[in-house]
């Protein structure tokens, strides 16, 4: 089972990424080494003791769509809620919206732990944090005050809706459409596929960031706008209102991340609400949506890099454990009884050391 490499990560942060010098120079205010050690140590413990033990059951059971509701595997809803209650979603978010404004490198260290514990689990916060980033940079004051604090605390999750059946790498051909309404809102109609954590009952609302084309907009990428489309509409007092006109039509089955609900989402089919069309709020300017979404996509790209480091660390740990247990042949100089553990064979040791060195190198770069 995965065990978070807390000491290695602290070493990398302090001596490779330069956190030690930064702390000494006081550029992070009153943050000191003791607090850094405590945060990284507790994140590692949570990943080892709480996340990793649910990875297997998560992948075996997977998320399921039952009677129109997405159910996550046993124990996963509590896992997410305990994780959010621990403040892990808000590490680097701005203080103005309830965040802890800690250095981004602590978040990167923690993201390695969550991903190595279970990538399917880490995908939920990864998408939420990307949505927070995009909303913080491009959202209106009204949208920020309604949504940001509850996304930063992890009370609500966020999603990224780019992909359509015919529009993958080439988003310029996307067809989801938005119609303007007199009250300044929009109505969204279309289908999105592969939407990570697109629907679930773990939190009581989900904030979708959706790319769509406003009627009459230019062709191609210059006619794409970004909309915030909540699963439940939010009333002026902040309480939840009516169900918005969107739903999860089906789930994909992605190797190794069955617990992460990868959804086909349908907007504006008339299933919910009096008027057809999901209510959406413009983020940024009309036809500049792709620029705004790039904030989220770039955040996701960096996070995917950390996923790679996390997978490499988890694979190295599995390989090491196996090589210590599996006995075969007799290694040169082996003095024990019976066959030697395969880790004693010089060529196996070389392979394992190569894995370790490549993982540490990738971590240092990240
Ligand atoms: C696990 C998972 C989770 C995802 N989560 C989300 C999500 O949350 N939200 C979301 O919107 N999308 C999500 N996606 C979708 C993802 O963004 C798309 O898969 C991606 O944009 C690529 O689109 P595609 O799969 O249609 O591949 P295609 O665009 O069909 O590409 C197929 C191959 O052709 C190559 N290719 C395409 N065009 C060119 C070109 N011009 N030149 C050279 N090579 C080219 C590509 O690199 C790729 O190798 C997810 C996908 C996966 C697998």
Element-by-element helix/strand order: HHHHEEHHHHEEEEEEEEEEHH
Strands, count: 12
Uncertain segments are: none
Beta content = 15-25%
Structural class by sheet pairing and helices: alpha+beta
As a percent range, the share of helical residues equals: 40-55%
Largest sheet: 5 strands, mixed, barrel
Description:
The chain is α+β, with helices and mostly antiparallel strands. It has 2 domains: 6-312, Butyryl-CoA Dehydrogenase, subunit A, domain 2; 326-365. 43% of the residues lie in helices and 18% in strands. The protein has 10 helices and 12 strands. The chain has helices at 6-16, 19-25, 33-51, 55-61, 76-85, 104-117, 119-138, 141-152, 289-325, 346-365; strands spanning 64-66, 69-71, 157-161, 177-180, 186-196, 206-214, 225-230, 232-234, 240-243, 246-251, 262-267, 278-283. A 5-stranded mixed β-barrel has the order 4-5-12-7-6. A two-stranded antiparallel ribbon has the order 1-2. α3 (33-51) runs parallel beside α6 (104-117). The longest helix is centred in the C-terminal third of the chain and has 37 residues, at 289-325. The protein binds flavin-adenine dinucleotide. Residues 127, 160-163, 168-169, 194-196, 254, 262 line the site of flavin-adenine dinucleotide.
């Amino acid at each position: 089972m995965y065990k978070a490499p807390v000491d290695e990560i602290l070493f990398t942060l302090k001596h490779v990424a330069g956190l030690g010098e930064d702390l000494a120079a006081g550029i992070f205010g009153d943050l000191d080494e003791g607090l850094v050690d405590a945060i990284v140590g507790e994140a590692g413990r949570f990943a080892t003791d709480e996340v990793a033990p649910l990875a297997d059951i998560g992948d075996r059971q997977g998320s399921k769509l039952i009677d129109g509701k997405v159910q996550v595997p046993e124990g996963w809803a509590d896992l997410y809620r305990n994780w959010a209650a621990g403040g892990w979603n808000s590490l680097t978010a701005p203080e103005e919206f309830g965040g802890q404004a800690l250095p981004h490198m602590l978040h990167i260290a923690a993201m390695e732990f969550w991903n190595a514990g279970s990538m399917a689990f880490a995908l939920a916060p990864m998408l939420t944090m990307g949505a927070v980033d995009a909303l913080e940079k491009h959202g209106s004051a009204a949208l920020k005050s309604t949504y940001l604090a509850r996304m930063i605390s992890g009370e609500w999750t966020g999603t990224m809706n780019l992909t359509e059946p015919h529009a993958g790498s080439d988003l310029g051909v996307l067809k989801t459409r938005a119609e303007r309404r007199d009250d300044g809102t929009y109505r969204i109609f279309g289908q999105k596929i592969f939407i990570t954590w697109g629907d679930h009952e773990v939190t009581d609302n989900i904030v979708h960031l959706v790319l769509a084309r406003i009627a009459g907009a230019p062709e191609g990428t210059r006619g794409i706008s970004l909309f915030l489309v909540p699963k439940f509409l939010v009333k002026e007092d902040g309480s939840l209102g009516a169900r918005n006109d969107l739903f999860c039509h089906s789930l994909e089955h992605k190797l190794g991340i069955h617990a992460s609900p990868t959804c086909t989402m349908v907007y504006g089919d008339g299933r919910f609400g009096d008027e057809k069309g999901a209510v959406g709020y413009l983020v940024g300017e009309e036809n500049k949506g792709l620029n705004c979404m790039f904030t989220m996509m770039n955040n996701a790209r960096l996070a995917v890099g950390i996923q790679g480091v996390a997978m490499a660390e988890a694979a190295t740990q599995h390989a090491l454990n196996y090589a210590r247990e599996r006995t075969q042949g007799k290694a040169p100089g082996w003095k024990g009884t019976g066959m030697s553990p395969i880790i004693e064979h010089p060529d196996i040791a070389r392979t394992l050391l190569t894995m370790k060195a490549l993982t540490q190198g990738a971590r240092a770069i990240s």
